[in-house]
Amino acid sequence: MARLALSAIVLLMAVVALTEGLRGAGPKKCCFKFNDNVSINKVVSYTKTSQRCSNPGILLNTVAGRQLCVKPSAPWVKELISYLDNKNVAGSNSNL
């Protein structure tokens, strides 16, 4: 009887270890609090959070090296992303 219980525990642990391994590592950074007032002239780039995060978010990278979470649905965030994308495309056409 003890062997059966021990075998069941080992099997259960193996299944848990396998399913955890298949999920892989979690996302590196998710947003749980969002900033509303950001000095947009200090933003140098942005990154979208992983789709595996519970709240979709945009990480704004500032000149000072900070990352601020903002909501991707906010109109000003959409405008900022468009501005940054256009700025990066225009800068990549350099002949230097």
Biggest sheet strand order reads 1-2-3
Residue fraction in strands: 15-25%
Number of E-type strands: 3
Helix content: 40-55%
CATH architecture of one domain: Beta Barrel
CATH-defined fold name of one domain: OB fold (Dihydrolipoamide Acetyltransferase, E2P)
- The H/E string reads HEEEH
GO biological process, one term: immune response
Pfam families: IL8
Subcellular location: Secreted
GO cellular component, one term: extracellular space
Describe this structure in words.
With 96 residues, the protein is an alpha+beta fold. It has a domain at 27-91: OB fold (Dihydrolipoamide Acetyltransferase, E2P). The protein has helices at residues 2-23, 75-91; strands spanning 43-48, 58-62, 67-70. It starts with a helix and ends in a 5-residue tail after the last helix. The mean pLDDT is 81. Keywords: Cytokine, Secreted, Signal. Its main location: secreted.
List descriptors.
96 residues; alpha+beta; 3-stranded antiparallel sheet; 3 strands; 16% strand; rod-shaped
What order do the helices and strands come in, and which of them pair?
Layout: H1 2-23, E1 43-48, E2 58-62, E3 67-70, H2 75-91
Antiparallel strand pairs: 1-2, 2-3
